[in-house]
From TrEMBL, chain A:
It holds the Pfam family Arm. Residues 307-342, 372-442 are annotated as: Disordered. This is Armadillo repeat-containing protein 4. The keyword Coiled coil applies. Residues 314-333, 375-395 have a biased composition (Basic and acidic residues). The keyword Coiled coil applies. Residues 664-691 form a coiled coil.
TrEMBL record, chain B:
It comes from the Eukaryota. It comes from Pipistrellus nathusii. PANTHER family: CALCIUM BINDING PROTEINS, RIKEN CDNA 1700109H08 GENE. The keyword Transmembrane does not apply. This is EF-hand domain-containing protein. It holds the Pfam family EF-hand_7. InterPro entries: EF-hand-dom_pair (IPR011992), EF_Hand_1_Ca_BS (IPR018247), EF_hand_dom (IPR002048), Recoverin (IPR028846). SMART domains: EFh. Residues 96-131, 178-213 form the EF-hand domain. Keywords: Calcium, Metal-binding, Repeat.
Length: 1040, 238
């Protein structure tokens, strides 16, 4: 059963919540088998039917309690079976709509009760219990899975010799038999289905095209393929979709509905997700599978259906004409026969289906009339059947064969692999619109000239080919018209084919053109679709350096999107590209090598270029590292050619997003060279170096290295040049990350970078602003810098930025404002600008990071504002908002809000308000946490909140005390202090003292008394004394 | 008797092409050669041909002798005839076009006596195998313009050389038309001064812009593929 369920049953795509079973005939057949098995269980195996499942099978049922009769205790919303287990638990328990069943006996009964909705119940059960065997027999039976042979089971029987496990074994064997049964059954089902064939699909589409166009009489407005390229096997789907059985995609515009994007696959025809914004097709199936295109369109467009029947006669004639040459008279007879039958709507529909699109099938299969009737009756049966079982009344379609299911799974994995690539590759990933030049449109003269040249490429010998290639290069290949012209006249195929020849000159010529035209995003995709990448990857092994160079450069251009990068890696390109980097090591260049050869350095440069493109995918970064690319890149970084340095640093910068790389970059002493190149003249190089430093400077040691190698000064200097925004963004980013270290901040102050940063707070793009503000946030941790920021007038622009919408920017701005607010003088300005209100309203921001950051920033504001209490109260609904944030599930938000509450609660009136808003139970609820940061701020908030009314008692009632005692076992001294203070406050209440004592607080607190931290000492001692005093008082009371 | 060592005992082993050439021939005949005469000959040739080392020149001379196949003849008067030379071009350098092989022969045959002397042989091969771009440029141009006395490659000559460059799927007329167009394309590309023929200056300029055009009208230099087999480590030895 497990195997059948796991492998065969067709689940819908994983979506939200539980996955549902798809409505396919195969699933239905399987379901029916299972029902039969379960229904007859009670009669066939009465002994086993009493066996109580390890865990109940649970699902949502549609059954009404009233349906149950004798043997059940029925109430309005619940049903209990009279039959129960040893512990008195009922074996069937229904509490609308959840049902739990714990034995096969009850399962059988239930199915009998369910009568007509049996199938539905069974489906719900299977959907609700993805692993029924584990539930029935316990987990250890499930682990044996497929490998479990009878031997295995026998082995177990001998091990446990009691009756219980004997029954268990019996059931296991029964289920196993069912499994085998199901598999056999589904095989039978599958073998009945006939897949569509590319030729049949093509024929359908050709015919429909014939009858499409403007006007009322046509069946469709238009029908066209999404891709003009037809693979030799007749398919137009890209290869990685072909393995899923997909043949082609068509865009159909019927008269009465929107354009439909339809997938024709071997399993049938269905609507897909349509063209996405980036012009790639969303391959996901939407809706049911139809058996062919015409059926599908009939369902979707009434007009089509109507006109189709009008066209029918013409259609048939055409069909016949088409078939005549290779048709036997025998075959024509039945179709004529059909024509003769004047039929109802239904037969007419069928007739069309059969005539249309079947001609090709018949050609293949040479069927008899007999065969047809079987198909028809089968079709008929399934549809009737579906109606009866209350499913959607749709003609469901043939499904996947077992072997294919395997294939689908495999390719699914592959797709996942592609998808799992890193996120840093957004920019180039949109698929460009694929506009082909219309044949009739006004074509530029280049088009015809290029067409002529391609003709020579196709039909010429090596000499003619080289001439054609050379003169093709004279066209402006940077121009899109030329690029597309080459493709549209079939030049790409020829160029790629040339790469497979032996002739070096042809290869060079072809690559030179491919290199240029692959700047065009569409061409890149076409090159990948035509399988150009594996060939180019192979060329990387060529002994000709210029070939290597050109191939690498072309790969660098092509690998700008995910699928291409995947292909490069998949064909072993990364290792080869990394090997190219090694070329530059043979410093002794041969005096005179081949005529067409390039220099070693050039080879390495091209390799680096290609790696740069490839390194935008996570898996490729890994592959580069594994191929030993980092030391080679480090070595190349020591050269002084800008052309070389840019791709090398670019690759490093791209890869530095990975932890592994950052460690390696540190180890290979790359930082030193990055810093050195910051001083280069080349802006692009500076940008990439700064970017790489930005990525790496998350690490403290790296930050120190940057300082030690004198990198801070050039960074500060580069700040003054604001024309190149990309570079500015990179430089400010590097400054931000570097300023996390205090020593670096001091240096930056020396270089007057703080002033410059403040100047950059206005009129800059967001990418720059995020970094500038981030840097200021770090710098303002120090008093001197806070003063500088104020003196330079930085507070106003910072507060102005609080109204933005960019999440990253808001996080940084709130942090910076919070840092500034530590200074009372700054706070006055912030208050005047109404900054606190802006911060407060950011608590409503949907992003948890922003919320948390805003709450943190509020803490110093409340601390340092004059009349803070009054100010806080003046925000209508503000306090309620803060209290409600305690319901968040983000730890950082919770910690920050606790900190804010600590500050708010210092004002008695506000404390009263938040108490009314229920702060005590909310805080108490958070007490069971292991997060030290949250623990600390929570404890502080609790100790502050104790100051009002009977809050102390309320904390005790809400069970906050015991968890707090456990905080004392934490390793964080801050947590200890806060907790001791909270406990001290709480210990004013006698009941709390008892709870503390019961939880062993005294011993822990005694340790704390010995702490060097005075506050902690005091709080711990105070708490102990409260507990002790209570104990004394009780004793005294007892004796008097 | 170092010169007779067919095996590579000498530390400065000749380059692969030469080794390849030598290995193909039975050089038994050379044992009969007078080592003194050989040495003298090699000495005199080495003075004019700088791109080969002495040992290489020696090997080439021995090879030449082997190709001529007349062991008794004196080295300096031995001559290689056209058919043997074409055999060498075809067998060793992968050339296939009869017409061009003839042209290459004429380019080797500096004194136009319809056969190749040992001097011409070594000189020709020096361009062929080790020539700088300039030398090869000159060589190729010579091969292509050969028939014209005026030092230009004319339209007719181009047509003649490209005649077989299209596959024979089309009718003769269509092919002719195709070739004519191809000639025009070539002229458009290479005839910078628009005089309807290609001068050396045109040729030089075009090739410097795109090296692929060096053998634009057909192969007249050793095939690139052959050089592919050259192992990397040898590159460093000379």
């Amino acid at each position: 059963m497990g195997v059948a369920l796991g492998r065969l049953v067709q689940w819908t795509a994983p979506g939200h919540g539980t996955r549902a079973l798809e409505k396919t005939p195969l699933n239905e057949a399987i379901m029916k088998e299972i029902i039969m098995f379960a229904e007859s269980f009670i009669y066939k195996y009465p002994q086993e039917a009493k066996y109580v499942f390890v865990e109940p099978l649970e699902w949502k049922t549609d059954l009404d309690p009233s349906a149950f009769e004798s043997g059940y205790v029925v109430s309005a919303t619940t049903v209990k079976s009279e039959e129960s287990d040893e512990n008195g638990q009922p074996l069937l328990f229904l509490s609308v709509p959840q049902i739990k069943v714990r034995s096969f006996g009850q399962l059988s009964c239930l199915l009998l009760i369910a009568k007509d909705t049996k199938l539905k119940e069974a489906q719900a059960c299977i959907e609700g219990n993805r692993n029924p065997i584990a539930k029935i027999l316990g987990l250890d039976y499930n682990t044996v899975k497929e490998e479990s042979s009878i031997l295995n089971i026998l082995d177990k029987i001998t091990k446990y010799n009691d009756t219980e496990s004997e029954i268990k074994m019996k059931i296991a064997i029964l289920l196993k038999q069912l499994d085998v049964n199901l598999l056999n059954h589904s095989l039978k089902c599958i073998s009945l289905e006939i897949p569509l064939h590319p030729a049949a699909v093509k024929n359908d589409i050709e015919l429909l095209k014939h009858f499409s166009g403007k006007g009322e009489q046509t069946v469709l407005e238009s029908i066209k393929y999404t891709s003009d390229y037809e693979y030799p096997n007749g398919c137009r789907a890209p290869p990685w979709r072909q393995i899923l059985g997909e043949i082609c995609y068509v865009l159909v515009k019927p008269h009465d509905v929107e354009t439909l994007c339809i997938t024709c696959s071997k399993e049938g025809v269905f609507l897909n997700g349509g063209k996405t914004d980036d012009e790639e097709i969303n391959y996901e199936r939407k809706g049911v599978i139809y058996k062919d295109l015409v059926t599908c369109l009939k369902e979707k467009s009434a007009k089509f259906s109507e006109n189709m029947s009008k066209q029918k006669t013409r259609f048939n004639e055409l069909q016949k004409e088409k078939n005549k040459p290779n048709e036997t008279p025998k075959k024509e007879a039945p179709s004529a026969l059909r024509k003769a039958i004047p039929g109802s709507d239904k037969t007419m529909l069928e007739k069309n289906q059969i005539n249309f699109g079947k001609s090709n099938m018949t050609k293949r299969l040479e069927p008899s009339l007999n065969w047809r009737t079987t198909v028809d009756s089968k079709e008929h049966r399934t549809s009737v059947h579906e109606e009866r079982h209350g499913g959607r009344v749709e003609k469901s379609a043939p499904s996947v064969s077992a072997g294919k299911a395997q294939l689908i799974r495999k390719s699914g994995e592959k797709v996942e692999e592609i998808v799992s690539e890193s996120s840093s590759e957004s920019e180039e990933d949109e698929e460009p619109p694929d506009h082909r030049q219309e044949a009739n449109a006004d074509l530029p003269s280049e088009y015809w000239q290029i067409q002529k040249l391609v003709k020579y490429l196709k039909g010429g010998n090596q000499t003619a080919t080289v001439i054609a290639l050379c003169s093709m290069k004279d066209f402006n290949l940077a121009q899109e018209t030329c690029q597309l012209a080459i493709r549209d006249v079939g030049g790409l195929e020829v160029l790629i084919n040339l790469l497979d020849t032996d002739d070096v000159k042809c290869k060079i010529g072809s690559l030179k053109i491919l290199k240029e035209i692959s700047h065009n995003p569409q061409i890149r995709r076409n090159i990948v679709d035509l399988g150009g990448l594996p060939i180019m990857v192979n060329i990387l092994d060529s002994p000709h350096k210029s070939l290597k160079c050109l191939a690498a450069e072309t790969i660098a251009n092509v690998a700008k999107f995910r699928r291409a990068r995947w292909a490069v890696r998949h064909h072993g390109g990364i290792t080869k590209l990394v090997a190219l980097l090694d070329c530059a090591q043979n410093s002794a260049e041969p005096a005179q090598s081949s005529l067409y050869d390039a220099r070693d350095v050039e080879v390495a440069r091209c390799g680096a270029l290609a790696l740069w493109s490839c390194s935008k995918s996570y898996a490729n970064k890994e592959a580069i590292r594994k191929a030993g690319g980092i030391p080679l890149l480090a070595r190349l970084l020591k050269t002084s050619h800008e052309n070389m340095l840019i791709p090398v640093v670019g690759t490093l910068q791209e890869c530095a997003s990975e932890e592994n790389y950052r460690a390696a970059i540190k180890a290979e002493r790359i930082i030193e060279n990055l810093v050195k190149n910051l001083n280069s003249e080349n802006e692009q190089l500076q940008e990439h170096c700064a970017m790489a430093i930005y990525q790496c400077a998350e690490d403290e040691e790296t930050r120190d290295l940057v300082r030690m190698h004198g990198g801070l000064k050039p960074l500060a200097t580069l700040l003054n040049n604001t024309d190149n925004k990309e570079r500015l963004a990179a430089v400010t980013g590097a400054i931000w990350k570097c300023s996390i270290s205090k020593e670096n901040v001091t240096k930056f102050r020396e270089y007057k970078a703080i002033e410059t940063l403040v100047g950059l707070l206005t009129d800059q793009p967001e990418e720059v602003l995020v970094n500038v503000v981030g840097a200021l946030g770090e710098c303002c941790q120090e008093y001197e810098n806070r003063v500088i920021v104020r003196k330079c007038g930085g507070i106003q622009p910072l507060v102005n930025l609080l109204v933005g919408i960019n999440q990253a920017l808001l996080v940084n701005v709130t942090k910076a404002v919070g840092a500034c607010a530590v200074e009372p003088e700054n706070m006055m300005i912030i208050d005047r600008l109404d900054g606190v209100r802006l911060l407060w309203s950011l608590l409503k921001n949907p992003h948890p990071d922003v919320k948390a950051s805003a709450a943190w920033a509020l803490c110093p504001c409340i601390q340092n504002a004059k009349d803070a209490g009054e100010m806080v109260r003046s925000f209508v609904g503000g306090l309620e908002l803060v209290v409600n944030l305690l319901k968040s599930d983000n730890k950082e938000v919770l910690a920050s809000v606790c900190a804010a509450i600590t500050n708010i609660a210092k004002d008695q009136e506000n404390l009263a308000v938040i108490t009314d808003h229920g702060v005590v139970p909310l805080l108490s609820k958070l007490a069971n946490t292991n997060n030290d940061k949250l623990r600390r701020h929570l404890a502080e908030a609790i100790s502050c909140c104790c100051m009002w009314g009977r809050n102390r008692v309320a904390f005790g009632e809400n069970k906050a005390v015991a968890p707090l005692v456990r905080y004392l076992k934490s390793n964080d001294a801050n947590v200890h202090r806060a907790t001791a203070q909270a406990l001290y406050q709480l210990s004013e209440d006698a009941d709390n003292c008892i709870t503390m004592h019961e939880n062993g607080a005294v011993k822990l607190l005694l340790h704390m008394v010995g702490s060097p931290d005075q506050d902690l000492q005091e709080a711990a001692a105070g708490c102990i004394s409260n507990i002790r005093r209570l104990a004394l008082a009780t004793e005294k009371a007892r004796y008097t | 008797m170092t010169w007779s060592s067919g095996t590579n005992s000498s530390p400065e082993s000749p380059s692969v092409e030469l080794r390849y050439l030598r290995s193909l021939l039975c050089v038994e005949a050379t044992f009969n050669m007078d080592p003194k005469a050989l040495g003298k000959l090699v000495e005199s040739i080495s003075k004019t041909v700088k791109s080969f080392k002495k040992s290489e020149v020696e090997s080439l001379v021995i090879l030449f002798h082997g190709l001529v196949g007349k062991p008794d003849e004196r080295l300096d008067i031995a001559r290689l005839d056209r058919s043997t030379f074409r055999m060498v071009l075809h067998g060793l350098f992968g050339m296939t076009d009869d017409k061009l092989m003839n042209r290459v022969f004429f380019a080797f045959d500096k004194d136009s006596d319809n056969c190749i002397s040992v001097n011409e042989w070594v000189k020709g091969l020096s361009v062929f195998l080790r020539g700088t771009l300039e030398e090869k440029l000159k060589f190729c141009f010579e091969v292509y313009y050969l028939n014209g006395d005026d030092g230009y490659i004319s339209r007719e000559e181009i047509f003649d050389m490209l005649k077989n460059s299209l596959h024979q799927e089309l009718s003769e007329e269509e092919t002719d038309e195709g070739i004519r167009e191809l000639v025009e394309i070539t002229l458009k590309k290479m005839d910078y001064d628009n005089d309807g023929k290609i001068s050396f200056a045109d040729f030089e300029k075009a090739v410097k812009e795109d090296r692929l055009l060096l053998e634009v009208f057909g192969q007249c230099l050793p095939e690139e593929k052959v050089q592919c087999h050259q192992p990397q480590k040898d590159e460093g030895t000379f």
